[in-house]
């Protein structure tokens, strides 16, 4: 039976987690755009502005490698309250101003270091709260909310910067983090599984080796990482592609079409498709992440490029089924870390894919680079076919 949104929001703890997710993504987006503008205004350096903007993502892989075991060792209420208090404190310090760029980057990176732990703690609670098909719908709703909140946060941040100082905008972001810290204690006290009394980093490495050493969980992790990372990597060539068509600003339209495709895919597959149909669509959807991008080899006009990008990102909804299978395959005591490792791999892989595609455009036509990303995604899906059927 297909779950409904009313079923999700009928669960009090889910409402709290959903509120935390929306607040976290929105305020982080506002904070990062404000800091980027602040860095550019103070230094005039576009490179430094970009480094500040990406500083929260750079340490994501490190946090995933060293800290993820906390998601299963610390109760979610305590962990998420501490996470949002850290976000508030860091944003408040940034709002006070006066920090040199290096200190700003270091502070943002510190928050980014613990971000995968907070995300894993939230994801670990969903299977217990939303059994069966409800977990898939909850995941799809979180994905759509994250995309929508990111877009809204950037738009609101831009509007705030036009009326307030960067410091004032940062204080509003800090207020959002403080509100999240006040909401988190509303989570019920949840029991946690007894775990070996080893250090956090050692335990994280031990469980990561366990998950990657098992054929089933390793295959599902790779299935969640590779097609997404390779297809999304095409975004690294979108700006030069649009510039080659005489309108670099059109890159925003192509990327927006990609965001719309992802939202539509998560809605259609997560909410409208029945579980049995969703299972059968897993492999076709995975192939769809790359197949439309192959047509970029013929250098399509911008409207067609938008349509192809949207079609490819529609296929990203295959990840809903892969995540459900991972929840079933991972041992329950380490389920939070398994989901955290999945998310860390996707974040790291997308960053690497986008960077690699951008570098390739220095030696190849952007249209061919995008097509190459699509071909790589299709090949990855075929190599992982046993985990996607």
UniProtKB/TrEMBL annotation:
Q: What is the name attached to this protein's record?
A: MFS transporter
Q: How does it sit in the membrane?
A: Multi-pass membrane protein
Q: Does the keyword Membrane apply?
A: yes
Give the UniProt keywords, A-Z: Cell membrane, Membrane, Transmembrane, Transmembrane helix
Q: Where in the cell is it found?
A: Cell membrane
Give the Pfam families listed for this entry.
MFS_1 (PF07690)
Principal cellular location given in the protein's record: membrane
Keyword Transmembrane helix included in the entry's annotation: yes
């Amino acid at each position: 039976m297909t779950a409904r949104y009313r079923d999700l929001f009928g669960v009090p703890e889910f409402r709290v987690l959903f509120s935390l997710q929306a607040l976290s993504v929105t305020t982080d987006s506002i904070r990062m755009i404000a800091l980027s503008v602040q860095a550019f205004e103070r230094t005039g350096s576009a490179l430094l502005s970009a480094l500040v903007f990406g500083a929260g993502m750079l340490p994501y892989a490190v946090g995933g490698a060293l800290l993820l075991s906390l998601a299963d060792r610390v109760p979610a209420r305590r962990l998420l309250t501490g996470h949002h208090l850290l976000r508030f404190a860091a944003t408040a310090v940034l709002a006070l101003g006066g920090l040199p760029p290096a200190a700003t980057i270091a502070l943002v990176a510190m928050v980014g270091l613990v971000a995968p732990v907070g995300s894993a703690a939230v994801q670990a609670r969903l299977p217990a709260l939303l059994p069966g098909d409800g977990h898939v719908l909850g995941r799809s709703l979180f994905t759509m909310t994250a995309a929508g909140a990111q877009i809204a946060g950037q738009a609101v941040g831009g509007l705030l910067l036009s009326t307030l100082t960067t410091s004032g905008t940062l204080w509003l972001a800090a207020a959002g983090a403080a509100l999240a810290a006040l909401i988190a204690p509303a989570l019920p006290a949840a029991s946690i599984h007894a775990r070996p009394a080893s250090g956090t980093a050692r335990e994280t490495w031990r469980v990561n080796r366990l998950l990657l050493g098992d054929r089933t969980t390793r295959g599902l992790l790779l299935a969640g990482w590779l097609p997404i990372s390779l297809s999304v990597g095409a975004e690294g060539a979108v700006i030069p592609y649009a510039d080659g068509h005489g309108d670099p600003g059109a890159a925003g339209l192509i990327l927006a079409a990609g965001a719309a495709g992802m939202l539509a895919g998560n809605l259609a597959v997560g909410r409208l498709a029945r579980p049995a149909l969703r299972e059968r669509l897993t492999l076709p959807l995975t192939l769809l992440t790359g197949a439309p991008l192959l047509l970029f080899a013929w250098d399509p006009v911008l409207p067609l490029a938008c349509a192809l990008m949207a079609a490819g990102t529609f296929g990203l909804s295959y990840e809903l089924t892969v995540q459900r299978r991972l929840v079933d395959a991972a041992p329950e005591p380490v389920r939070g870390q398994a989901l955290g490792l999945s998310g860390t791999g996707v974040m790291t892989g997308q960053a690497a894919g986008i960077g690699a595609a951008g570098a390739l455009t220095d030696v190849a036509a952007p249209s061919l680079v995008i097509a190459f990303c699509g071909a790589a995604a299709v090949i990855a899906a075929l190599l992982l076919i046993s985990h996607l059927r």
